[in-house]
Sequence to fold (213 residues):
Amino acid sequence: MGFKMKRIRNLYFHGNRNLKMVALTFDDGPCKETNEVLRLLKREKVKATFFVLGKKIEGNEEIIKRIINEKHELGNHGYSHKSLIFRSNKFIFEEIKKCDDLLLKKFKIGTNLFRPPYFNFGLNALVVTYGLKKKVIFCDVSSKDWKLKDVDFVAERVLKMVKPGSIINLHDYLENIGPNKNIVKITEKIICGLKQRRYKFVTVSKLLNFKIS
Fold:
């Protein structure tokens, strides 16, 4: 990502650099691979944050219930995964609100966390998310697991980039590609490497010290 600052207004890039905590985040799901990720996280006693797409909620309700029941955290990744650059305020508002409404209707849960698709973000998105009181979650460690295919290479890339307070970007689903078949192996290697360095895994809200609404 290249961002060195912790926060700009309601945009967040990482947590406290003095605490050995990191947040694993998963984008574009849920999908069948999400269940395998959840199985790994449970075994390793690790909590994570899942930025879900509104269009993938229908038909995957049981997976989201599992995310909630196993005390992980949900974030909004928009409804359709369309870029928010050069979009109207109305379009951006509807993309965010539609996902929020589905989470509230189906699971009676809200989230103040939002991650823009492709990390594409402009002035209109800033205005809309601020008005919706969203915490916009970027990252300081991009795994590029959507682009890089070698499991060891992706895991090593992440481990080299991690610092205290890092927000790590991973994908359980790859938009326009399908379920990320490598995500469990990648995540397992990352968890193993960071546990050896005595890092603690927390949700984004805990890392950034604010509550999910």
In short: The helical segments are 32-44, 61-69, 89-107, 123-131, 151-161, 183-196, 204-208.
